């Protein structure tokens, strides 16, 4: 594939998989033995495991949208610079649904084998996600202020968790 | 190293050039003053976008951030695993490793732990090869977790509080030294 083709293909994959969350598109565009290096966990091995990861992300942030700002390519590799926007409606990183809006920037490195992604590296700063969910104490705060923030956060998360469990029970009835 | 000697650069050399700037000028641990030569290769309106850190946008702010990182991990080593070039844009796939021997981000007292981070870097150059815009992303939260400064993912309330107490005590001890 030429670099122009690769850039177009990467935009198409971004639109289908990360912007719209169409899990079926993963089978078309990723190798079965895909390796995905993503933050906060060991390498995700295999298309099926990657599908589960995308599903989990969409469950936490059902309205997730991706805006691609830059696509560059050279000899089988594509790098995308993007922004994501979404509202936390499900549990994320052990945090019960907060209903807060999150915006995050990402760089993504895709290694293609023909017209399929064989390996990918996703980099983003999860600290900014937790910051926007209000669970990380400000870095410049004193030790004691940080400690108080954790106590307050634990209380707040417990209340959110109770609310989320109650909502699930109502939904189950 | 003067501006006259290094610029302008032919496009074919953009990849090697960005590596040289990154390793010899920015992350040169042996010669901390090399960081100041970044001015020679910066476009006048150079902007940084570092992992959503809004306080590291200008050249001066970026240099302050780099100095802080070097203080926190004085033996920091960056490695480029891959480099690609598309027109006037260069992308690097990076990893770094360093021991937490100084105040981390100027705040967290040393833990002596070895911290590893992977990162991606995208640099847009102007026609002369000057740095015009820089983006870097890496999972800073993972670094704080490796240092034990933030509780692990999914930690329960008890563990969160225990963790916070431990850091409170550690911080107070460091403050007394």
Automatic annotation (TrEMBL), chain B:
InterPro entries: Cyclase_SnoaL-like, NTF2-like_dom_sf
Protein name, UniProt field: Ester cyclase
Highest taxon, organism lineage: Bacteria
GO biological process: polyketide metabolic process
């Amino acid at each position: 594939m030429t670099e122009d083709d690769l850039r177009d293909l990467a935009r198409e994959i971004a639109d289908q998989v990360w912007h719209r969350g169409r899990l079926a598109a993963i089978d078309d565009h990723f190798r079965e033995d895909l390796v995905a290096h993503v933050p906060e966990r060991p390498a995700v091995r295999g298309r099926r495991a990657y599908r589960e990861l995308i599903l989990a992300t969409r469950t936490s942030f059902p309205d997730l949208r991706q805006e691609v700002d830059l696509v560059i390519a050279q000899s089988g590799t594509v790098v995308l610079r993007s922004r994501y926007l979404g509202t936390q409606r499900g549990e994320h990183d052990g945090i019960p649904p907060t209903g807060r809006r999150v915006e995050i920037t990402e760089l993504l490195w895709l290694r293609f084998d023909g017209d399929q992604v064989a390996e990918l590296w996703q980099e983003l700063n999860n600290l900014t996600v937790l910051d926007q969910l209000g669970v990380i104490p400000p870095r410049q705060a004193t030790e004691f202020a940080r400690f108080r923030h954790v106590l307050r956060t634990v209380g707040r998360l417990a209340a959110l968790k109770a609310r989320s469990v109650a909502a699930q029970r109502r939904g189950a009835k | 190293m003067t501006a006259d000697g290094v610029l302008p650069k032919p496009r074919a050399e953009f990849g090697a050039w960005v590596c040289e700037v990154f390793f010899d000028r920015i992350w040169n641990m042996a010669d901390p003053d090399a960081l100041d030569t970044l001015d020679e290769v910066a476009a006048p309106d150079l902007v940084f976008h570092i992992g959503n850190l809004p306080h590291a946008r200008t050249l001066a702010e970026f240099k302050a951030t780099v100095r802080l990182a070097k203080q926190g991990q004085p033996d920091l080593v960056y490695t480029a695993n891959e480099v690609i070039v598309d027109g006037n844009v260069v992308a690097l796939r990076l990893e770094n490793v360093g021991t937490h021997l100084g105040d981390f981000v100027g705040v967290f007292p040393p833990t002596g732990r070895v911290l590893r981070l992977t990162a991606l870097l995208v640099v847009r150059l102007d026609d002369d090869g000057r740095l015009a815009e820089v983006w870097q992303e890496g999972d800073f939260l993972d670094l704080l977790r490796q240092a034990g400064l933030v509780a692990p993912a999914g930690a329960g309330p008890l563990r969160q509080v225990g963790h916070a107490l431990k850091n409170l005590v550690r911080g107070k001890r460091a403050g007394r030294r």
